Amino acid sequence: EVQLVESGGGLIQPGGSLRLSCAASGFAVSTNYMSWVRQAPGKGLEWVSIIYSGGNTYYADSVKGRFTISRDNSKNTLYLQMNSLRAEDTAVYYCARASSYVSGTSNWGQGTLVTVSS
Amino acid sequence: DIQMTQSPSTLSASVGDRVTITCRASQSISSWLAWYQQKPGEVPKLLIYKASSLESGVPSRFSGSGSGTEFTLTISSLQPDDFATYYCQQYNSYSWTFGQGTKVEIK
Q1: pLDDT > 90: what percent of chain B?
Q2: Does residue B46 sit at the A interface (CB-CB below 8 Å)?
Q3: Shortest CB distance from A104 goes to which of B46, B85, B95?
Q4: b vs e for A62-95, b when ≥16 Cβ sit within 10 Å of the residue's Cβ?
């Protein structure tokens, strides 16, 4: 069974850093397209970043230069390093999986809440 | 970045209605479009991928069509379980952007 479990969220001051983790089971992160998607309270979905199975990484303009996506294949875990956090980064962050480029994002974690506030 | 615009933003409909939601891309995305359903307090659920392919387990009353810049999600006969917010997402470019969402409400 495919499972995605996020952790690492919390309350952080503006300008601070946080690292989110997503522990995967039932499949290998190294052979899938792994994304981070966020949702601010009461708002819509916003795509944040993706790491392709080949290792290429891409980012939304809103986080480029501040966030870094990575994976640890030995731990089967996806990460999102978030630096220079702003109030507008406050959201639930979801880890999500697409088994191929064609297939759409079929599996989602339950999300972890990041609150950026002084 | 490619911008995705959904219409309408809110839709009021009754059980049994045929419902259509439109998603327009700011440039051609071929057929690289997915549709998701999200209910309050739940994670998004994939309905359609590659514009018109039905995800396994999704009821056949859901269908998707379109290519290039204009796409539609159709629910042939709205059921009580379908009242939710629907999002399109393009994955043609290196930035997999979502539309702003369409909330389907009970009329």
Answers
A1: 93
A2: yes
A3: B46
A4: ebeeebebebeeeebbbbbebeebeeebbbbbbb
